[in-house]
Design brief:
This protein has eleven helices and 25 strands. With about 400 residues, it is of the alpha/beta class. The chain has a six-stranded mixed sheet. It has a four-stranded parallel sheet with strand order 13-12-11-17. A hairpin with a 2-residue loop joins strand 7 and strand 8. Helix 2 packs across helix 5. The two termini are about 30 Å apart. The protein binds flavin-adenine dinucleotide (FAD).
């Protein structure tokens, strides 16, 4: 655990390279600079020149209202990295060669002496026919923007529907993203966005074979279910989606849900460059890392955030794929990379969840803070404050935290 990084075959002056400027990667890059007292050179790679505030992407009503303006959901990396001496390199990661210590980007090659992979995840479609082609997703900024634009169009056209008909939006996936999205769409007042004739959408949440909000405390599950029902959301449970065609979601029991738009919130998997690594993988292609967050057999290479499968060494339980966990992992990965660089001992990652809060629309939320239930507007205000403080810390280049 305490051998220094062997500089071969990378040049001795090669930097520590961090792939992905999301919650985990950005915090690691800045953490390495701080912890090494600016001695370790750091190159941060991302395909976008902005840090995306991904935890807010369910707010499609707001996105629809602001049109093309996504400023509230991004922080320019030039702003947050100013003065940190972290070098930013824009490019899409195509391949990581751990043996040669090099990363192939669409814009060239980067050599590294130590590496942190924080490339997040992508939607997993589980081979469901038509799902990738015929559904939207809000996992990425581009997807959320596109869906918000479509919703606006669907709502504008809703005034032309006959009788009492309303446009139906089907959301697939009863986890926190699907729940927050369903509540958001069902409670947004679409009239100022889509015109006085707009009719509110009918929202159907397909939770599939998994329990609704699986893994959340029962107090959160109960409150969220009640809030969705109050907002007029129909919850369809028990059957997974069998196929998706344009304007039609078919369940395994043969039920056909005609819809104006469908959104896939049913799951995530590691992105292709992570899946392709010849290292131990856990669920959904995530890299099964050591307790120190290092890749087994590759000292000096770490995986953090949603791309990593991390187990709590005390309980053996999987650490959740959340921004909160990503930030906690980032602190330990930065510490351990500096230790590895200097030949010092590494420390294990131990996860302490502070809380969870699920937004339920209309300024309401439900959650648990250090296992104590919180709900209603105090929970929603807390979530808003935590997100705002995170964004402010990122803008100022300070160490961010998040519950
Ligand atoms: C709608 C929504 C709401 C959420 N709400 C919460 C919440 O309330 N609380 C919470 O804790 N978590 C929440 N999460 C989960 C949280 O967003 C993720 O766990 C978190 O983003 C993981 O951080 P990460 O750094 O691993 O990945 P990301 O933040 O996704 O960052 C990955 C980075 O890698 C870059 N990248 C990916 N592939 C490539 C490539 N090939 N080349 C170059 N760059 C690449 C991306 O551009 C991105 O900047 C939410 C997620 C969603 C989608």
């Amino acid at each position: 655990m305490n051998a220094a990084v062997d500089p071969d075959p990378s040049p001795p002056e090669a930097p520590a390279v961090v792939l992905g400027a999301g919650y985990a990667g950005l915090a690691v890059a800045q953490g390495i600079r701080r912890r090494s007292r600016q001695r370790i050179p750091v190159v941060l790679v991302d395909r976008n020149p902005v840090h995306v505030l991904r935890t807010q992407l369910y707010e499609v009503g707001k996105l629809a209202a602001t049109g093309e303006d996504t400023d509230p959901w991004v922080v320019p990396l030039a702003e947050t990295l100013e003065g940190s001496a972290v070098e930013f390199r824009q490019g899409s990661v195509e391949q990581v060669d751990l043996a040669q210590r090099s990363v192939t980007l669409d814009s060239g090659t980067v050599r590294f002496r130590a590496l942190v992979i924080g490339l997040g995840n992508v939607a997993a479609y589980y081979g469901v026919p038509g799902a990738a082609a015929n559904t939207h997703q809000v996992y990425r900024l581009s997807g959320a923007k596109k869906f918000a634009g479509e919703l606006r169009e669907v709502e504008r056209a809703s005034g032309t529907l006959s009788g009492e008909r309303r446009p139906r939006i089907v959301i697939v996936g009863g986890g926190s993203t699907g729940t927050e999205l369903a509540a958001e769409i069902a409670t947004t007042d679409w009239r100022p966005i889509a015109g006085a004739g707009a009719r509110p959408p009918e929202v159907v949440l397909v939770t599939g074979a998994l329990p609704f909000l699986a893994g959340f405390p029962s107090s959160v599950v109960d409150r969220a279910r009640r809030a969705l029902v109050r907002a007029g959301v129909t919850i369809v449970a028990g059957w997974n989606v069998a196929r998706v065609d344009p304007g039609r979601v078919t369940l395994e029991d043969g039920t056909v849900l005609a819809c104006a738009a469908a959104v896939w919130c049913a799951g995530l998997e590691a992105p292709p460059p992570v899946r392709a690594l010849p290292v131990p993988h856990g669920r959904a292609g995530r890299v099964a890392v050591e307790p120190t967050l290092e890749v087994p057999g590759h000292p000096g290479t770490f995986v953090v955030g949603d791309a990593a499968e991390v187990r709590d060494p005390r309980t053996g339980a999987l650490v959740p794929s959340t921004a909160q966990a990503a930030l906690a992992e980032a602190r330990v990965a930065a510490r351990n990379l500096v230790a590895r660089w200097n030949g010092a001992p590494l420390a294990p990652f131990v996860y302490q969840e502070r809380g969870v809060v699920v937004a339920l629309g209309l300024g309401q939320a439900a959650g648990a803070l250090r296992k104590v239930p919180i709900w209603g507007s105090p929970a929603a205000v807390l979530k808003r404050i935590v997100q705002r403080d995170y964004a402010h810390a990122v803008e100022r280049g300070e160490p961010p935290t998040l519950i």
